[in-house]
Amino acid sequence: MQCGRHKGVVFDGNNADETIIFAYPSIEEMWCIRQILDRFYQVSGLQMNASKTVLYGLNVPNEELNLFAEVFDCKVGSFPFEYLRVPISAKSHRVSTWKPIIRKFKKKLLDELFNILSPQSWKLKVGDGSSVLFWEDIWIGVSKLRDQFPALFRISSEKIACISEIGFVDVCSNMQWDLGFVLPLDHYEEQQVQVLKIVLKDTVISPD
């Protein structure tokens, strides 16, 4: 959003109770944000909880931080801190800063895999795969693969392909899949591909 002479960025994080606001360190900017929050309260009835609000500064003198905190009637915090259980540090170049974040994402991926491969999951008999859409039909798990793996669906060039069009048996009698992903893949997409391979591991297409 535009705030004062500079641009601030509001990151919601899909959590109604916790919001981060990034802003240029000036008293003008602080008052502008305070006015926006006050107007929001008048319209919605939702008010900032000053007792749970913390102001952090990156390369900002303590005197200025204390002055800014008075605008919001909140306290001043220090790095590192946690936002939605993810550690936030001013020293992002250190490996130790990223280790807990990596652990959190790995756990999330394992949770997703567990949900996909849970006892409630099931596979539909697909025969030779010519009448079942890979992404758009419910044939493995309890939902469409496009919903289970939205990040991979977005980068696939085979969005409306049948199973038989992208799945084939190699010379070693193993199932292979050509999903036409747009390369290069980022780290999260590569992890999702590995999860998808596990999900598809026991899939076999054959004549009815």
Structure commentary:
The protein has 208 residues and is of the alpha+beta class. The strands form 5 sheets. A two-stranded antiparallel ribbon has the order 1-2. It folds into 2 domains: 89 residues, no CATH class; 100 residues, no CATH class. The longest helix has 22 residues. The chain has 7 helices and 10 strands.
In spatial order, strands of the major sheet run 1-2
Strand content: 5-15%
What number is the mean pLDDT? Answer: 78
Domain count = 2
Radius of gyration: 24 Å
Instruction: Name the helix and strand elements from N-terminus to C-terminus, one letter apiece.
Output: EEEEHEHEEEHHHHEEH
Structural class assignment: alpha+beta
The 3D shape can be described as elongated
Q: Oligomeric form of this entry?
A: single chain
Count of individual helical segments:
7
Largest sheet: 2 strands, antiparallel
| Number of E-state strands | 10
Unreliable sequence segments: none
Helix content percent band: 25-40%
First-to-last CA distance: 58 Å
Based on the model shown, name its key terms.
single chain; 208 residues; alpha+beta; 2 domains; two-stranded antiparallel sheet; two-stranded antiparallel ribbon; 7 helices; 10 strands; 38% helix; elongated
